[in-house]
């Protein structure tokens, strides 16, 4: 049945206003009596992982700076930056005309010294032996002649002048014998002439070795297998010792060098497993392991230098790439955790939360264990069924009535 017209028009708006007033009053009364409706976090139980994240770059344990030991003009550079080389491969070749001439001269001096030694062995020594034999025979004859002359002088058959002449001949024969003996001794292996010849040969060989070394210095080769990561030399350049011409990254274990915030130093230990990821390939993680922790702290940065070995190097990993590492420092299979947004004064020694107990806000001190990305482990201070207000809600004070509304609890 239709309502009278005055009810449809005149009284409709006041009725709705009255109904809205009654509803609003109920809400205000309910809020004043039971407290405001606020979202809260609940505790979760499950696996929780704590990680330390840091950034750095790719580096090898040692890099090889390539340079020259002599001054010279570059004749050829047969390799390019980024090229993989083997130990012994030619990297830089210098002009070597002077060095080759010096080598030929040293080789000629070797041949001359060897000929001098052969001459002593094959000619001088045998000749000296024959001269000694002749000198010995001559001395015997002269001594016999001297004895006969002496007897004749005694018998008065010859004058004293002939005896003097025989004496002089005897002295000469004796001198010749001594000279022959000295000559023979000098030509033997322990003699002075022989030793001089040996020393001359040794000096010539040393000069040859020096010339060969200097010639070898004109060919700069790779000392180990690796990749050329820098090149600063071109054909025609005049190079000299002390300048780095190339940088070689040796093949083998690559490392990630990162800076860890000193507040996380207590979590890092040798041999810890971790994962690395490059900015260029963010979706491709690779395993790494902590290999070195610097004993000192960088005072300006407030960080510690840490190196991690790459256990399985991906093909795209190259020198000086920017990388990030995620080091797992703690893991709990059955942790009682709470959203990190509920923790107040988390960085101090006395963290606490504002829990809701029997409809009222209650301040609770808590003990924190493992810290995940979005949740932290609560080791004491709360029960599994407690609910906690967000730390961002600063208007609620302890003892105030609250009506909790459970919200989603994101976990790490």
Automatic annotation (TrEMBL):
<dbReference type="InterPro" id="IPR058792">
    <property type="entry name" value="Beta-barrel_RND_2"/>
</dbReference>
<feature type="domain" description="CzcB-like barrel-sandwich hybrid">
    <location>
        <begin position="65"/>
        <end position="247"/>
    </location>
</feature>
<protein>
    <submittedName>
        <fullName>Efflux RND transporter periplasmic adaptor subunit</fullName>
    </submittedName>
</protein>
<dbReference type="InterPro" id="IPR006143">
    <property type="entry name" value="RND_pump_MFP"/>
</dbReference>
<keyword id="KW-0732">Signal</keyword>
<keyword id="KW-0175">Coiled coil</keyword>
<keyword id="KW-0574">Periplasm</keyword>
<dbReference type="Pfam" id="PF25973">
    <property type="entry name" value="BSH_CzcB"/>
</dbReference>
<keyword id="KW-0812">Transmembrane</keyword>
<dbReference type="Pfam" id="PF25954">
    <property type="entry name" value="Beta-barrel_RND_2"/>
</dbReference>
<dbReference type="InterPro" id="IPR050465">
    <property type="entry name" value="UPF0194_transport"/>
</dbReference>
<dbReference type="InterPro" id="IPR058647">
    <property type="entry name" value="BSH_CzcB-like"/>
</dbReference>
<feature type="transmembrane region" description="Helical">
    <location>
        <begin position="12"/>
        <end position="35"/>
    </location>
</feature>
<feature type="coiled-coil region">
    <location>
        <begin position="96"/>
        <end position="221"/>
    </location>
</feature>
<keyword id="KW-0472">Membrane</keyword>
<feature type="domain" description="CusB-like beta-barrel">
    <location>
        <begin position="256"/>
        <end position="328"/>
    </location>
</feature>
<comment type="similarity">
    <text>Belongs to the UPF0194 family.</text>
</comment>
<keyword id="KW-1133">Transmembrane helix</keyword>
<comment type="similarity">
    <text>Belongs to the membrane fusion protein (MFP) (TC 8.A.1) family.</text>
</comment>
